[in-house]
Design a protein that fits this description.
Radius of gyration: 28 Å
Number of helices: 6
CATH superfamily of one domain: Cupredoxins -  blue copper proteins
Shape: elongated
Number of strands: 11
Strand content: 15-25%
CATH class of one domain: Mainly Beta
CATH topology of one domain: Immunoglobulin-like
Largest sheet: 6 strands, mixed
Structural class: alpha+beta
Order of helices and strands: HHHEEEEEEEEEEHHEH
């Protein structure tokens, strides 16, 4: 009993201390349509679970009070109660209904956040390639022909399509106030859509454990006004050095680096693993050369097995 009281006291103190923090949980402070959908879904699920717990605890209390042990004559024999089929149907149907409601909400919200927001349906997304290496992030802008390391700028009130991949272990790209997380892998590109409703600075991070420097693998995502974004791009092109292949290789080998800016990007000499460069091409019909190569490899393997 003392252990339970100590655990409850610890939980209460922790809750009070967390409530006094300056920074609230970022997922409940959304600044974009995708994040708003995720936050609303989480709050709906919490409210639904809280309602279920409330009903369960009320019924539990009623049962304890009504059917608690009492002093009765030794000859007392409790009345025989038959089962009630309607009650059995109700408490069987309620969990089914709960699961259906949560499933519909989850599937609908997941489909919504995976797509470009309908708020910006008439705008073309800005494509940014986000790749990870060791414990840093590289952001390549094919439309602008520039690249940044450990920070990313983009215009507010415009859809952004991040294309993710990794030069090492699997990482997870996450900007809590703008969208959910999405994995970045070494041999394929995954995509995540997001947008910021207001200009501002947002914290981004790797939410998948990837080694010793995982805790420091954070970056700043800054949403700028359209005018400020265009001015920043012009300044980068005019003042930042070009990114060479040797410089990029040294960046890949480094464990930690600060913010860096380049007036060109690595996509020209080290393209992303998509299309013909994807590691998942196992003889696709749209690439006859790859198909022939896979077939030749299969024939060679068969010949080796026959030789054995």
């Amino acid at each position: 009993m003392k252990k339970k009281r100590a655990a409850f006291l610890l939980f209460a103190v922790t809750s009070i201390l967390l409530a006094g923090c300056d920074n609230p949980l970022l997922i409940f402070d959304p600044k974009g349509p995708q994040a708003e959908t995720i936050s609303s879904t989480i709050l709906f699920s919490i409210a639904m679970m809280a309602g279920i717990l409330l009903v369960v605890y009320v019924l539990y209390t009623v049962v304890l009070l009504k059917y608690r042990a009492s002093k009765q004559d030794e000859s007392y024999e409790p009345p025989h109660e038959e089962g009630n089929k309607w009650l059995e149907l109700i408490w069987t149907a309620i969990p089914v209904v709960i699961v259906i409601i949560l499933s519909v909400v989850t599937v609908t919200s997941t489909s919504s956040v995976e797509q470009k927001s309908t708020v910006y349906a008439d705008q073309k997304p800005l494509v940014i390639y986000a790749s990870s290496s060791n414990w840093k992030w590289h952001f390549s802008y094919p439309e602008e022909g520039i690249e940044t390391v450990n920070y990313v700028n983009f215009p507010a009130n415009r859809p952004i399509e991040f294309r993710l991949y990794s030069y090492g272990p699997i990482t997870s790209f996450w900007i809590p106030q703008l969208a959910g997380q999405k994995y970045a892998m070494s041999d394929m590109v995954t995509k995540i859509n997001m947008s910021a409703n207001v200009p501002g600075s947002f914290m981004g991070k790797n939410s998948n454990f990837s080694g010793e420097g995982f805790a420091k693998m954070e970056f700043e995502a800054q949403a700028l006004t359209d005018a400020d974004y265009k001015e920043w791009v012009r300044d980068v092109k005019a003042t930042a050095p070009a990114l060479t292949e040797s410089e990029f290789d040294s960046l890949l080998k480094a464990e930690h680096v600060g913010r860096k800016t380049y007036s060109s990007n690595h996509l020209s000499f080290r393209p992303a693993p998509e299309g013909k460069n994807s590691g998942h091409h196992h003889g696709s019909m749209d690439d006859e050369g790859d198909m022939d190569m896979d077939m030749d490899m299969d024939m060679d393997m068969e010949g080796q097995h026959d030789g054995h």
